[in-house]
Design brief:
The protein has two domains: about 5-170 and about 290-295, Ribosomal Protein S5, domain 2 (2-Layer Sandwich); about 175-285, Alpha-Beta Plaits, CATH 3.30.70. It has helices spanning about 70-80, 105-120, 125-135, 145, 185-190, 195-205, 215-230, 235-245, 265-280; strands at about 5-25, 35-55, 60-65, 85-95, 155-160, 165-170, 175-180, 250-255, 260-265, 285, 295. By secondary structure, the chain is of the alpha+beta class. It is about 35% helix and about 30% strand. The mean pLDDT is about 95. Strands 1, 2, 3, 4, 5, 6 and 11 form a seven-stranded mixed sheet that branches. Strands 8-9-7-10 form a four-stranded antiparallel sheet.
């Protein structure tokens, strides 16, 4: 008798940069907790490949291209694993730095949930729920999973995942300059600080004026104000953001990273910003918004 075949599934979840947000954990149901705010869903993110080998012993393992532990993705894999006994291995490939405000925790959780859920016969809504709860209780972030269910410029008008939360998406044509200027910041450390949470709440005052379909410039005006008022940026981030603004770009901190995202106003400003970043030894890339949210994929990128 031949052995049962190994089953394989793959998924992709995009990264994300937050421009403005306000935590909201007031609801009794954790599926309705998270944050309101706005950000941009990025074309790069996390790829997951899940392999399940039926057998007498059960084992769940998550391996990645990072030496850092990935407890949130591991929790997702355990909770959504197939009910039959066997070995489940999930391999993750991160296209952006971890711990730098690019939503890699949420993207890893959701890519894992979709890939493993596909093997286990779970619905998309169940995979989203498991990823959201793992990210929420694991200290990865607030609302990241909900934000990357679609692409482009996203506005979270109600916290949580559907049907509790609500996220509006609109196209975001321009390319962003994205870069890192320091060591990663721990999201749980920031989110557990009462002083930081007070500053975040005050800095996000009147963010609702953006509306569900803001202009690109309106989003950046609100995001720059939030960066300046929240007080989360290090000296290196503040210096970089200020320099890019002087050279004709809209520039903000990527929450919660030692990182930035910027939109030059024209080709001259773009050249000036790139020249300055190169002179300072700051590596930056140009990224476009993702056209779609997370999805089950047929194959991994070549």
């Amino acid at each position: 008798m031949s052995a049962p075949p190994v089953r394989v599934a793959r998924a992709f979840a995009p990264g994300h940069v937050t421009g403005v947000f306000r935590p909201d954990a007031s609801h009794r149901d954790p599926r309705a907790r998270g944050s309101v705010g706005a950000g941009v869903v990025l074309e790069l993110g996390v790829w997951a490949e899940a392999r399940f080998s039926p057998g007498l012993r059960s084992r769940v393992r998550v391996v990645a291209d990072s030496a850092r532990p990935l407890p949130i993705s591991e929790e997702v894999a355990r909770r959504i694993a197939p009910g039959a006994s066997g070995a489940l291995t999930v391999r993750l490939m991160h296209e952006l730095p971890i711990g730098q405000g690019f939503g890699m925790s949420a993207a890893g959780a959701l890519a894992t949930a979709l890939a493993v859920g596909s093997l286990a016969g779970r619905t998309r809504s169940k995979a989203v729920e498991v990823a959201h709860l793992a990210d929420l209780f694991g200290g990865g972030g607030l609302g990241g999973v909900a934000a990357i269910l679609g692409g482009g410029l996203e506005v979270r008008t109600r916290p949580g995942i559907p049907p509790f939360g609500h996220v509006a998406h609109r196209t975001f044509p321009p390319a962003l300059l994205v870069g890192v200027v320091g060591r990663p910041i721990s999201s749980p450390t920031v989110l557990k600080s009462p002083a930081a949470l007070r500053r975040i709440t005050e800095a996000s005052h009147s963010w609702e004026r953006l509306g569900p379909s803001p202009s690109v410039q309106g989003f950046f005006r609100m995001s720059e104000r939030f960066t300046d008022r929240a007080g989360l940026a290090s000296a290196a981030v503040s210096r970089t953001v200020s320099a890019l603004r002087r050279r004709g770009a809209r520039a903000c901190q990527a929450m919660f990273g030692q990182s930035f995202f910027a939109l030059p106003s024209n080709s001259k400003a773009r050249a000036s910003c790139l020249d300055w970043l190169e002179s300072e030894g700051i590596r930056a890339v140009e990224l476009r918004a993702s056209a779609t949210g997370a999805y089950v994929a047929r194959s991994l990128p070549v």
